[in-house]
Design a protein that fits this description.
The protein is an alpha/beta fold. Helices cover 40% and strands 22% of the residues. The strands form six sheets. A seven-stranded mixed sheet has the order 15-16-17-14-13-19-20, sandwiched between helices. A five-stranded parallel sheet has the order 10-9-8-11-12, with helices on both faces.
């Protein structure tokens, strides 16, 4: 059994609490143990981060840039270690993880390294006679950060890189099921950043509660469920929170869309990482004229992956745990009169595999439509008019991502304007860019990752006024 530890003040260390087993989703067997950190470890991490902040906050953006560029370079040099760590914890395919996550993430670190030198503010000026006003952007302090299990490495970078680039220090908690890549990242950071700038404490919900309520946390940032976001917001009390809380993304397909291309790209996005993605397509809303054609095309895409087999490139990846497998299977089993046209089965054998699934005929108020499945499941619903399509898309509590498929530019712009989602794609889905914000509306929360907006989220604004005499 591999033993993992926390990284506090630049040193790998153990915990005074119990440990938890780490289970490989591909096999369902335990391979290691990680700490369940409690108050002593959390307090030590915050103390280290607080000490480090007094120096790190006064470094220049250029100095922070150089450190982050060195981190990115070492991640690329040690990519095989990161691939092995992440894929063992999550069951992802190594080749896809490297190309779709690790390499883009190193680019995102480099983006934040450069963006640290480009923070913007109003020009200094005289808004009161004989007084000059200016705006300072300053780091907040020690940031408590909590990550989910679906994208452990990517989420760690999306949180740590902008916070550190802005001059903050971090106490970061990975999900208890997937700590390996975050620990490895912290070890790399410890080589290129001063001790205490990046601290990782492993643990469960109790550990997360200790982070969220800690007196030394200047902000609490979470990517996770609505339930977890509500708990964090309560624990943070009046301190700022940065929340990204889930998706249930609609896909609006109009009659003039390229159905074959749409089916291919939507299936790729929906079934990647077993659908455990807050921006993954979940609800396909298609014009009645091409409804049957698209259902058949999506079913064929699912069948192709099922035929390739579980755990194989070209096939499909496992869900993270037995709990998640049971949850996804239960949602499909309780579908009522809706019809499963592809998949819909738990895979026999080791691991937590659920077949890529397409369901037609679900009603708008059905649980399968209203709840975020977070599994490899697509529902398909018909619509007759543009207004109906938008109404169906918006009629859920989440507001993270959506996509529109049409060849008509005017329609695309009308629909994008009416959709209540923070990310809206046209004729594509899940494509990201470091320069563009990632975040949503409604119960998804208002936090933005990536882009200058993601960097600014970890700063505070101070007005300075100087009298001339």
């Amino acid at each position: 059994m591999t033993e993992f530890g926390n990284v506090i003040d630049g040193v790998l260390c153990g915990s005074s609490g119990d440990g938890s087993d780490l289970v490989e989703p591909r096999t369902g067997t335990a391979y290691g143990r990680a700490p369940l950190s409690r108050a002593p470890e959390v307090d030590a991490a915050f103390a280290a981060a607080t000490r480090a902040f007094e120096t790190w906050r006064r470094t220049t953006p250029g100095e922070r840039q150089a450190a982050l560029l060195a981190v990115a370079a070492e991640i690329e040099q040690r990519r095989d270690e990161f691939v092995a760590a992440e894929c063992r914890d999550t069951g992802k395919f190594p080749g896809l993880f490297e190309t779709e996550e690790l390499l883009p993430v190193t680019d995102q670190i480099r983006f934040f390294a450069g963006a640290a030198r480009l923070l913007e503010g109003r020009a200094a000026g005289e808004y009161v006679g004989a007084h000059t006003s200016m705006v300072r952007r300053e780091p907040l302090g020690v940031i408590a950060q909590i990550a989910p299990w679906n994208y452990p490495f990517m989420t760690a970078v999306w949180k740590i890189a902008p916070a550190v680039a802005a001059g903050n220090t971090v106490v970061f908690k990975p999900d208890e099921a997937t700590p390996a890549s975050a620990i490895l990242l912290a070890e790399v950071c410890a080589k290129h950043l001063p001790p205490g700038v990046v601290n990782v404490v492993c643990g469960d919900r109790e550990t997360g509660s200790l982070l969220s309520s800690h007196r030394d946390a200047a902000m609490v940032a979470l990517t996770g469920s609505v339930r977890a976001g509500s708990a964090v917001a309560r624990a943070a009390d009046l301190r700022p929170v940065h929340l990204e809380l889930g998706g249930n993304a609609p896909v609006l397909v109009f009659a003039d869309a390229d159905v074959a291309r749409c089916a291919e790209l939507v299936a790729d996005a929906a079934f990647y990482n077993a659908g455990q993605d807050c921006t993954a397509p979940a609800r396909v809303l298609v014009h009645e004229d091409v409804h049957d054609e698209l259902v058949a095309a999506l079913a064929a895409e699912a069948a192709h992956r099922i035929a390739a087999g579980p755990g194989r490139e070209g096939g499909y990846a496992p869900l993270i745990s037995q709990v998640q497998l049971d949850r996804v299977a239960g949602l499909v089993e309780r579908r009522g009169s809706a019809e499963v046209v592809a998949g819909g089965q738990v895979e026999e054998g080791p691991g937590f595999y659920y077949q890529p699934t397409v369901v037609r005929g679900a009603g708008q108020k059905d649980e399968l439509v209203q709840e975020e499945t977070f599994g490899p499941v697509l529902t398909v619903q018909p619509f007759a008019t543009e207004r109906e399509a938008v109404a169906l898309a918006n009629d859920v509590r989440h507001g993270l991502a959506a996509s529109v498929w049409t060849r008509e530019a005017g329609r695309a712009m009308r629909v994008v304007a009416d959709l209540d989602f923070g990310i809206t794609w046209v004729n594509t889905h899940v494509t990201t860019a470091a320069e563009m914000p990632h975040g949503g509306f409604k119960e998804t929360g208002g936090g933005k990752d990536l882009s200058l907006y993601g960097l600014e989220a970890y700063t505070r604004i101070k007005h300075v006024m100087v009298a001339w005499a």
